[in-house]
Design brief:
This protein has 199 residues and is α/β, with parallel strands linked by helices. The chain is built from 7 helices and 12 strands. It has 2 domains: 89 residues, Roll (Urease, subunit C, domain 1), CATH 2.30.40.10; 83 residues, no CATH class.
C-alpha cells in the first residue's frame, strides 16, 4: 500500500512509501498530486531520517527494563549495574523480555539504527525482529548511555529506492530537536512499518 508521510513543520520533505522502500521524496503537494490514491499520514513537527543510538550494549544488555507489572518491586525506570545483572541471573528468561522492552524504548525515541557489539542472543534477536539497522560505533562515545544520547546522530536522509526508515519529532526544526532531545518522537517507521506511534 502506498503511504505518504508528511510532517507539519517540514512539508517539503514528505516521503512516499511503497512497502518497505521509499518511492519518492519531495514536497507533499507534489507527491499527493502524482499519487492521489496514496493513504496520507499527517504528523506534527518534522520528519527526519531517524537516529542511530551508539549505546546498544549498554542499553539492551547492561540494563534491566522492568515490565509495568513489576513496578511495585522494581519501579518503572531501567535498572543498571550489579542490580540488573542480579535480576538476569535470577531468571535468564528475563533477558529477552528486557531486551524487547529496551528496543521499544529506543523506537519511542526515533531510533532506526544501533551500534555497538551485542554479545547475547536475546538482545540480538530483539534488534533483528524490530528491523533496526546496524551502524558503526564512534570511536569516542560522548556522554553516557541514554535513549536520547547527546549529541544526536541522524542517519542519512531518505532517498527514492532506499529503505523506508525515518522518524518524526514534534519540534519546529532540527535546532529544537537537538535542544529538546529524542523524547519528542511521535512516530518511527522501519521497513515501511509504523513501529512506534505516540498519538
Amino acid at each position: 500500500m502506498l503511504t505518504i508521510h508528511v510532517a507539519e513543520a517540514s512539508p517539503e520533505t514528505a516521503v512516499l512509501v511503497d512497502g518497505a522502500v521509499i518511492a519518492a521524496v519531495g514536497p507533499y503537494e507534489d507527491l499527493a498530486a502524482v499519487r492521489p490514491e496514496a493513504r496520507v499520514r499527517q504528523w506534527p513537527g518534522i520528519l527526519t531520517p531517524g537516529l542511530l543510538n551508539p549505546y546498544a550494549p549498554e542499553l539492551l544488555e547492561g540494563m534491566y527494563h522492568p515490565d509495568p507489572r513489576e513496578a511495585a518491586g522494581f519501579g518503572t525506570e531501567p535498572i543498571t549495574g550489579e542490580r540488573a545483572q542480579r535480576i538476569f541471573r535470577m531468571d535468564a528468561s528475563r533477558r529477552g523480555a528486557s531486551a524487547r522492552r529496551g528496543v521499544q524504548r529506543m523506537l519511542a525515541h526515533g531510533t532506526v539504527a544501533i551500534a555497538g557489539e551485542l554479545r547475547g542472543r536475546a538482545a540480538v534477536d530483539a534488534v533483528r525482529r524490530a528491523g533496526l539497522a546496524i551502524g558503526r560505533r564512534p570511536e569516542a562515545l560522548p556522554g553516557s548511555p541514554s535513549f536520547s544520547p547527546v549529541p544526536l546522530v541522524l542517519m542519512p536522509g531518505p532517498v527514492p529506492g532506499g529503505p523506508a526508515r525515518f522518524a518524526v519529532f514534534d519540534v519546529p526544526d532540527r535546532a529544537a530537536l537537538v535542544r529538546l532531545g529524542a523524547s519528542t518522537c511521535v512516530a518511527t517507521v522501519i521497513e515501511g512499518r509504523l513501529v512506534h506511534r505516540s498519538r
